[in-house]
Amino acid sequence: MESVLYLLERIADHMSENDATAISQILEHCSLLLSWKFVASQSGAKQLGKSLMDLLYSLQHLISIGKTADDQETLCMGLALMFMDITGCTSNALKVLETYAGNRSSPLPVLDRVMQKCYNYFVNSGNPRNLRIHALRCVGQSLAVQDTDYMLKSLDQILIPRLRALQMIVEGRMATSSQSTQSLEEECVFELAVLSALIATQKPRSEASKDDIEVVESSQSDEKSPKTNVVYTILCQCLPLLLNLLRNFSSSEILVEKTCDVLRSGLIAAVQDESTQTLADSYCDILDFIILRHPSAACVLAKAMIFVMVTASTKIVTHIATWFKNIDEKMNEFNEAYIELAYHVVKKHWRLLVVAPSSVAYTFLQATRNIVLKILGTSMDTSLCRKSSLLLLVMIRNVTNSKTFSEVLQETDYHLINVIFCRLQTEAIRPIAEALSEILMLLARSNPHRIRSVFQLGSQASFRAEILAVRSPAKCQPWAEVPTLTHIWAPSTST
């Protein structure tokens, strides 16, 4: 039977809605396994369970759209619950449960069994932690389609002990087998993984009435607030604690990454118009603290925040401008994550800069320009220079096309051109040479008289050598057909 299941799983990707009859027959035969008795450590049961779970996982997209989807999904989840107890098959069974529960938009009676069994697996500290988190995701997916009141009550029962554990760690009162920093860090990482798993599985409930009122419990005050969604309620309770946790363990890179995972998981599910402003304040406070200490984690979170919290764009752009001003003034070496974040803003969210207060946008662009020129002028990191040159190209292209923020370029145009020519004198890879060449063309076309005067102030021999290099097909073929470059920059012969 195992070999038959394996062969069916191999062809599952080639099946379609037209094979509904065949899928029904396959599931009918699989249902016979519910009457079988398996021993948890039985080797044959493990192999059979893996093949069956892989088949059910591959067929999910077809089963969920069938006319008898509820019955067939109930059968599939029942089989997964049975094989969840088989040693070596638990992970496969949990993957099936998570997939089927996660694609439901309405409750099923079998989901109660899924929640109970997966929660029992999660609370058993003897089970592997990665599988406990996986089981908790199944609980979260099953809860996401339940009634809001039931969902909140259930999540409280799960989360309150975890939040208390994190609070004890923050306060230094966590009772662990070892009070070492590593032990406390491991406890934090696990509790944060719990939060991230639960938050990520909750779906936005757009059908909730905006006129409903619920009491949001807080450690500081009890007050009524407009009903949003479950994730927003969770985040409001967690954000102050997460900030304190970061302050106490600011040197732990893994802990900061896991904290940012929690925050990023809640962004899309939590944000609604009435909650954006409150969340933006808290998120920006956290990023203010970690942006210089942990650039990689902070910048990934910042990009997600910019994408989601559109209604709070002015506040976010103000913070971003401050971040880059501090990076420019306080950092001697620059992480690629900063360049990627700036590129994300300039490339995908240029309008945020246009509608922001001009002083804020100018501060950001000025700091970004300074950082890029420092990198191109001193760094030998090829990847960093490539990303910096692309960032500078997009920024100059947007400035010249929109005819805004031109002063950002004009106030340092000589230094900018000089840095570009100096970089071209080094062994630059093709993407860097192409980006810098296009920058020179954009500057020449936008203000040829100014560029000519800058050229005359510079080292003419060096500049002319680089002009020839830019026009050389061997170095930068796309610009070989531009014959007007030397004419634009050639010093005037009239005296």
From TrEMBL:
Domain of life according to the entry: Eukaryota
Annotated SUPFAM superfamilies: ARM repeat
InterPro entries: ARM-like, ARM-type_fold
Protein name in the entry: Thyroid adenoma-associated protein homolog
